[in-house]
């Protein structure tokens, strides 16, 4: 009997745990123009992925606002330049910009926002990034998005 229990225990310990994919990520931006994460893992098993952004600073959105934009890494500079022209009323993202996978609204200190997008939009072999398109922020406020099996 003891041998059967030990054998069953060994089998259970060696078995991989079934884990549900996490289809969201929580990030924070602060008044020092920094996100608290440098990479977001996105599971291919998710149909939709959500990024929740919390601005942990105190400054208003017109002074030190933050958003999160998802795009191919190669498109960041162009999206950023066009976003500056679009202005705060457009959340520093040009209307109808097809290079943008997704973007949140701009929030100020103490505020939060979320953005969801279909994981299928992260297609191809090009690297993807997330960044803040508030003028001048993307130099420091950026990270990579890694698509995981």
Counted beta strands? 8
Adjacency order of strands in the biggest sheet: 2-8-7-4-5
Strand content: 25-35%
CATH structural architecture: Sandwich
Pattern of helices and strands: HEEEHEHEEEE
- Domain module tally: 1
Sheet with the most strands, sense and barrel status: 5 strands, mixed
Helix amount = 10-25%
Q: How many angstroms does the end-to-end distance come to?
A: 41 Å
Protein model, in words:
- It contains three helices and eight strands.
- It has a single domain (22-148), classed as Sandwich (Immunoglobulin-like), CATH 2.60.40.420.
- 19% of the residues lie in helices and 30% in strands.
- The chain is α/β, with parallel strands linked by helices.
- The protein has helices at residues 2-14, 61-64, 76-86, and strands spanning 24-29, 39-43, 48-55, 69-72, 100-103, 112-118, 128-131, 142-148.
Task: Summarize the SSE layout with pairings.
Layout (H helix, E strand, L loop, with lengths): L1 H13 L9 E6 L9 E5 L4 E8 L5 H4 L4 E4 L3 H11 L13 E4 L8 E7 L9 E4 L10 E7 L1
Parallel strand pairs: 1-3, 2-8
Antiparallel strand pairs: 3-6, 4-5, 4-7, 7-8
In short:
This protein has helices at about 1-15, 60-65, 75-85; strands spanning about 25-30, 40-45, 50-55, 70, 100-105, 110-120, 130, 140-149. The chain is of the alpha/beta class.
Brief descriptors of the model:
single chain; 149 residues; alpha/beta; Immunoglobulin-like; five-stranded mixed sheet; three-stranded mixed sheet; 8 strands; disordered N terminus
